[in-house]
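Reminder to self: tokens first, then the designed residues, so the page reads top to bottom the way the pipeline ran.
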């Protein structure tokens, strides 16, 4: 199936990876981008690599804030990125919880990480080849979702990442490594790819 024609993408968890973790962020004003994130996304934009945010938002299921609030939060996120010349192709969220939900939000869904549903949906909608893509997050469930979708994965130490790194088994989640920032993770992933460039192409890579 993977004939190399699909697009490459970097999937990003939201809270603790793109923006500062504040425990059930519920207002657009609480959004604060982590250092290097916007520059890194702008660089990926320039390289023609899709950037997609995939986020569990069980605060909706738990009744902490309404689902429409997420749209306001994500509009603000896009605006903060646009202010820095960066853009994400899509922001996918899971508003469900299997046991602690209200009404229709209390359900065993296929989108809640560690399941790969959001990544697979984004891949279908944007012609992304997950086997050539990277998933970055601060929790085990982010990396598990990425690995289940067939992506390479990377942990960042921001958010809950430091705690996660203590017990993480990188080899079980197609893990590239543990990185201080999204920028470091993306650099390592891009370098991995450059190492596959044939020697005869090295002059092209110099410029
Ligand atoms: Mg997170
Ligand atoms: Zn869901």
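Designed residues (207 positions):
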């Amino acid at each position: 199936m993977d004939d190399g024609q699909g697009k490459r993408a970097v999937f990003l968890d939201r809270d603790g990876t793109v923006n500062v973790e504040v425990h059930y962020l519920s207002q657009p004003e609480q959004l604060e981008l982590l250092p290097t994130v916007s520059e890194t996304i702008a660089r990926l934009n320039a390289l023609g690599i899709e950037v997609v945010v995939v986020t569990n938002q069980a605060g909706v299921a738990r009744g902490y804030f309404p689902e429409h609030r997420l749209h306001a939060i994500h509009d603000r996120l896009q605006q903060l990125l646009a202010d820095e010349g960066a853009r994400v192709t899509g922001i996918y969220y899971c508003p469900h919880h299997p046991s602690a939900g209200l009404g229709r939000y209390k359900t065993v869904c296929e989108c809640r990480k560690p399941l790969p549903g959001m990544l697979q949906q984004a891949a279908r909608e944007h012609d992304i080849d997950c086997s050539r893509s990277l998933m970055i997050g601060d929790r085990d469930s982010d990396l598990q979702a990425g690995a289940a979708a067939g992506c390479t994965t990377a942990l960042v130490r921001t958010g809950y990442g430091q705690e996660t790194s203590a017990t993480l088994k990188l080899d079980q989640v197609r893990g590239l490594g543990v990185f201080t920032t999204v920028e470091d993770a993306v650099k390592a992933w891009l370098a991995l790819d450059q190492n596959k460039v044939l020697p005869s192409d090295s002059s092209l890579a110099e410029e």
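Confidence is low (pLDDT under 50) at residues 201-207.
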